[in-house]
Amino acid sequence: MPPAPTVVRTLPSLRRALERLRARRATVALVPTMGALHEGHLALVRQAKKRASRVIVSIFVNPTQFAPHEDFGSYPRTWKADLAKLAEAKADLIWRPDVSTMYPRDFATRISTEGPAMADLEDRFRPHFFSGVTTVVGKLFIQCRPDIALFGQKDYQQLKVVTRMAADLDLGVKIIGVPIVRERDGLAMSSRNVYLSNEQRARAPALYRTLKDAAGRLRNGDHLEAVMSDGARTIEDAGFSLDYFEARHAETLSPAGSLKDGPVRLLVAAKIGDTRLIDNLGV
Length: 283
Description:
The chain has helices spanning 11-21, 39-51, 79-88, 99-102, 122-125, 129-144, 156-168, 198-203, 206-219, 224-237, and strands spanning 6-8, 28-33, 54-59, 93-95, 148-152, 174-178, 241-249, 264-272, 275-282. The protein is of the alpha/beta class. The protein has 2 domains: 6-178, HUPs (Rossmann fold, 3-Layer(aba) Sandwich), CATH 3.40.50.620; 191-282, Pantoate-beta-alanine ligase, C-terminal domain (Pantoate--beta-alanine Ligase, Chain: A,domain 2). Strand 3 (54-59), helix 3 (79-88) and strand 4 form a beta-alpha-beta unit. The longest helix is centred in the middle third of the chain and has 16 residues, at 129-144. Catalyzes the condensation of pantoate with beta-alanine in an ATP-dependent reaction via a pantoyl-adenylate intermediate. It catalyses: (R)-pantoate + beta-alanine + ATP = (R)-pantothenate + AMP + diphosphate + H(+).
């Protein structure tokens, strides 16, 4: 069995560990997570190991990105399994702070972003979300001082928001987006997939099938408005409650009228039962 990564829980311990990691001028990659690790997370770690000599994985379930009606309390926490997976993936360091370390008493600072954070996608349904994400990710960057940080493309708007924040604030970290890891039937891997019943799990791949069909039709010259309307109807017919099914510019996330508007990304968010799933695909 591979040796377990070093686990640190306090800022002084983190600083000492970072000094050891950088003793030989090592390049450092950060993979921020909320735990409940699956193959998608491990793909980030493997990519990180290819790009840097030392890899830090943070595990912190961030309360500030959950609204009161969302699943912070029930969000899956699988520490022992996560530790075993990160040992197998040969991560070097796990940063596992508690809430009082990240948000001490009288904490009063937030990072608020515009641009892709106000694209009328996730922000329309979760207006609290990106302030929570950017604040915690900004803190992680300051704490860990990585050269690069890797994020999955499944949370595509989040990827663009974090990329913009890091550039705007001159944080000195390069953001790398890693392609979505999927189950064999196309469902994007997510920690929330464990909430799906057997019937819901069987229906869930309809999101990816619809994205693929829509992207193919657009590449073949079909009218964008008709393609998106048909896709939305298909998703609802599969038993989903649709939040959005949108064609956006892949970099700015502004609405796309046609493929002539630049690189286009299709993005979807929908609920099946009580579980909300998101996915996206480039055209």
